[in-house]
Amino acid sequence: MRNNDRTVCNPQRYTLNRRMPHLEFPMLRSPVGMTERGGGGCSGSDRTEISAHLVGTGEPLDILTHYVKQLESAGWKVGAPVNADGLAVATARSKDSDGVDWTGAMTVTRVTSAEVEVTIQMMRPSER
After folding, report:
1. Residues facing residue 77 across a β-bridge
2. Which candidate in 28, 34, 66, 122 could, as Cys together with 102 as Cys, close a disulfide (CB 3.0–4.6 Å)?
3. pTM of the entire predicted model
4. Cα distances (angstroms) measured from residue 21 to each of 60, 79, 82, 96, 122
5. Does residue 42 lie within any of the structural domains?
6. What is the pLDDT of residues 12-56, one digit of tens each?
7. Other C-beta atoms lying within 10 Å of the C-beta of residue 126
8. What is the distance between the alpha carbons of residues 106 and 11, in angstroms, rounded to a whole number?
9. Which domain holds residue 109?
10. Looking at the domain assignment, is residue 9 inside a domain?
11. pLDDT tens digits, residue range 81-120?
């Protein structure tokens, strides 16, 4: 059974202008020698994500460490990295402008010998 109170099917109760919680990602710069060839982002009411596809040489752990320094400089808390078989990952925590805690992970995945995918996914407690 669907909750029709919170859908576009019930325009009397659905407002697009409703203020949604929003986490700002800091400006992140790619490692020297790597070129961004695509990426993007998306967000919903209780999650947000950014990603970048990078071309160039570099190990996932080194690339993760590069971005961790930038996140920590912006006030984020990042856990100890885990590195295995072409994948490096670390937990991440931050607060939005309302002081709400967001938690998630940053992953760097080896795609080919000269390509990696970098993703940061963050979630906040749901309001439901």
Report:
1. 93
2. 122
3. 0.81
4. 31, 24, 30, 8, 12
5. yes
6. 444 444 555 689 999 999 999 999 998 888 888 789 999 999 999
7. 8
8. 37
9. 35-123
10. no
11. 999 999 999 999 999 988 999 999 999 999 999 999 999 9
Separation between Cα atoms, residue 37 and residue 54, nearest integer Å:
6
Instruction: Give the residues across from 55 on adjacent strands.
Output: 35, 115
Confirm whether 23 is domain-assigned: no
Specify the number of domains making up the chain.
1
Contact between 43 and 124 (Cβ < 8 Å): no
Position 101 scores a pLDDT of 95
Backbone angles phi, psi at 64, to 5 degrees: -60, -45
Q: List, in sequence order, the alpha helices (H) in the chain.
A: 60-73
State the CATH number of the domain containing residue 115: 3.40.1000.10
Residue 8 lies in a domain: no
- H/E element holding 40? strand 35-43
